[in-house]
Amino acid sequence: TPGTPGRALRGVHQAMAHLVAANRVVAVAGDGRPALAVLPDGTPIDAAGKHVVIIGGGDTAADCLGVAHRQGAAGVHQLDLYPQPPTERDGARDPWPTWPWVLRSYPAHEEGGERVFAVAVQEFVDDGTGQVRAVRIAEVTVEKVDGRRIVTPLPGSEREIPADLVLLAIGFEGTEEQPLLTQFGVTRNGRGAVDARPDWQTDADGVFVAGDMHRGASLIVWAIAEGRAAAAAIHAYLGGVGELPAPVDPARQPLAAR
Questions:
Q1: Using CB atoms within 10 A as the burial measure, which of 55, 129, 167, 258 is most buried?
Q2: CA–CA distance from 96 to each of 91, 169, 256 (Å)?
Q3: pTM of the predicted model, to two decimals?
Q4: Does residue 110 sit in helix, strand or coil?
């Protein structure tokens, strides 16, 4: 998304900027006035009367959907990169107790809005004044190759969706190039994550990694487990007395179907 044309247009925001501001309004005013929800620089983020596009299919996107409805959005589209999942578990594909690939709906979806699957934004369209007026999307296929996600737009499938407000709820997309990694001599792998040795150290001695930076976007329980395991490894590295609980090792993966 950072490299998508038009990303810097007015009206394109990270989801959390919208949600945090809206929560502050409710906390201060009780019933809230959406127009009071603003960014730190004073820019208002208000869905009232606007065509809203939410990019992402998870919990945060659903939260944005609910807030947009309550702020009086003229219409809401929620975009998901992946195909629409089935409504019921496929026992052959996802036998219990593996995590099933099924369509998950939230109460906010019952309030309205349109969900669009298997699409990706190609451009945020400028209205000529630096404000977003639409998103240009294309239907896509997604496949994993050597651990990397390959997204391929389908020729001739592009179309525009009106958008006065765009909320990015796409979650963790990998680490960014940053001076800290360079200074420590830590390298990123092809997924944008950081590999860990069996003792949770990176390729730089004395530098440890855990959670999303190591695993990529995952469940909070994995971040907690890896954080505890890395803490135990750091404890041992520093010569601490005794052993701390280490629930997982760096190579541990979720239970998969066989």
A1: 167
A2: 7, 29, 10
A3: 0.72
A4: helix
- Label the pairing between strands 119-126 and 132-145: antiparallel
User: Which residues are CB-neighbours of 179 under 8 A, at least 6 positions away?
Assistant: none
Question: What's the CA angle centered on 78, arms 75 and 83, to 5 degrees?
Answer: 140
Q: Residue ranges of the domains in the chain? A: 12-168, 179-237
Tens-place pLDDT, residues 48-83: 999 999 999 888 899 999 999 988 999 999 999 999
Dist. CA 94–CA 97, nearest whole Å: 8
Q: Which residues contact 2 (CB under 8 A, 6 or more apart)?
A: none
* Contact status, residue 136 vs residue 4, Cβ threshold 8 Å: no
Q: CATH 3.50.50.60: does it fit domain 12-168?
A: yes
Place of tokens 């750091």: 234
**pLDDT of 180-216, one tens digit each?**
888 999 988 877 789 999 999 999 999 999 998 898 8
Q: What are the φ and ψ backbone dihedral angles of 210, each rounded to 5 degrees? A: -160, 170
